[in-house]
Task: inverse folding
């Protein structure tokens, strides 16, 4: 399996918003990543094939803030062999990302009300 990311259509970024609950968005650039499998189930899955998309989740504030995507829906295009489920047009992703300030890793990230 191989995964390639694409930043030619725009940057990857995380957008956080204070609220009840705190929300997070992960904008995915057009054709933001491509996953390829080999063998009998040789398939290519392209995320956000028709333009930018957004995976929605939440974020947990604190000393180690986390962006959590729990079965966030994203559009996909599947291509490949006979056994590849090419009729699927949506997939879900689940992930947890620890967020930190790359310029000052010891700095606590806060998101205040607008």
Result:
């Amino acid at each position: 399996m191989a995964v390639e990311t694409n930043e030619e259509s725009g940057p990857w970024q995380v957008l956080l918003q204070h609220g009840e609950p705190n929300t997070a968005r992960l904008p995915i650039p057009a054709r933001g990543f491509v996953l390829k499998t080999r063998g009998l189930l040789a398939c290519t899955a392209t995320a956000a094939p028709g333009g930018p998309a957004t995976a929605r989740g939440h974020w947990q504030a604190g000393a180690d803030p986390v962006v959590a995507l729990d079965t966030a829906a994203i559009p996909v295009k599947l291509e490949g062999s006979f056994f590849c489920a090419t009729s699927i047009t949506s997939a879900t992703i689940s992930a947890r990302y620890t967020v930190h300030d790359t310029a000052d890793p010891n700095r606590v990230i806060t998101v205040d009300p607008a």
The chain has a mean pLDDT of 89. The radius of gyration is 16 Å. DSSP finds no helices and eight strands in the chain. The beta strands are 2-5, 15-17, 23-28, 33-36, 43-47, 53-60, 66-80, 90-98.
